[in-house]
Specification:
The structure is a single chain. The chain is built from 7 helices and 10 strands. The chain is of the alpha/beta class. A 7-stranded mixed sheet has the order 3-2-1-4-8-6-9, with helices on both faces. It has a 3-stranded mixed sheet with strand order 5-10-7. α4 packs across α7.
Length: 228
């Protein structure tokens, strides 16, 4: 299929709902990561029911696409389906409240050359000061920040375009679209590299932009501590 080949182009999709404060840092980090590789990178920001100044954060060569419905699954799906892709294209996605490391895309290219169909990466929190100490400790104790992990994050996920479309892409769901997609890829027999290289820094804000997201997970850890 696509195993062992080097991507000739990369498409990065970033869904965003009212992220004017954090999106610029995300886009700056993607630009920096793009500068570390030799193939062209197309960045698409999907503006999902934005009512603030998020749209003003996006300027050429970055593309902005507008959707409605507050569905992160639909936002990611529309982003990829809007792109210009072919069999040599590698798809990557992150979140608007996240910052990718400089070697993010280079690490994914290495995975693709090594035979991976899918790259599933890890995340690290950006600031634990707004949480009780126990929340950060509990997260660290439960999280497997090493190769071979089985975490799935839309903030750090990538795959060949042909592999993505081969299983139908992201589902039109409001949450866990990343887990759903990776489950279908696994069932389809795709080679998944569960990598701890190039972890993405993601926001630890207590209230996120969608139900069931990282913020809800952290509040669950806080509640678990209060109940114990």
């Amino acid at each position: 299929m696509d195993k062992g080949r080097r991507p000739e182009q990369i498409v990065v999709v970033v869904p965003a709902h009212n992220e004017q404060a954090l999106l610029p840092f995300c886009l700056e980090s993607i630009t920096a990561s793009s500068a570390e590789i030799s193939c062209p990178v197309e960045v698409i920001v999907v503006l999902d029911d934005c009512t603030d100044g998020t749209a003003a954060c996006v300027s050429p060569p970055i593309t902005a696409v507008t959707v409605s419905g507050r569905s992160v699954g639909r936002a990611r799906k529309v982003g990829f389906e809007t792109s210009t892709w072919d069999e040599s294209t590698w798809f990557a996605t992150t979140d608007a409240d996240s910052v990718v490391p400089a070697d993010w895309l280079a690490t994914q290219i290495d995975a693709a050359i090594g035979g991976a169909d899918v790259f599933a990466g890890t995340v690290v929190g950006d600031d634990w000061a707004q949480w009780p100490t126990e929340v950060a400790e509990r997260f660290s104790a439960e999280y497997q920040a090493s190769d071979g992990h089985r975490h799935v994050h839309g903030a750090n996920l990538a795959m060949w375009a042909t592999v993505y479309f081969g299983v139908g892409g992201f589902a039109l769901v409001d949450r866990d679209e990343d887990v759903d997609l990776v489950n279908r890829l696994r069932i389809a027999g795709m080679s998944i590299e569960w990598s701890a290289r190039a972890p993405v820094i993601t926001s630890t804000r207590p209230y996120g932009r969608l139900a069931g997201g990282f913020a809800d997970h952290l509040r669950g850890l806080e509640s678990a501590g209060e109940a114990s």
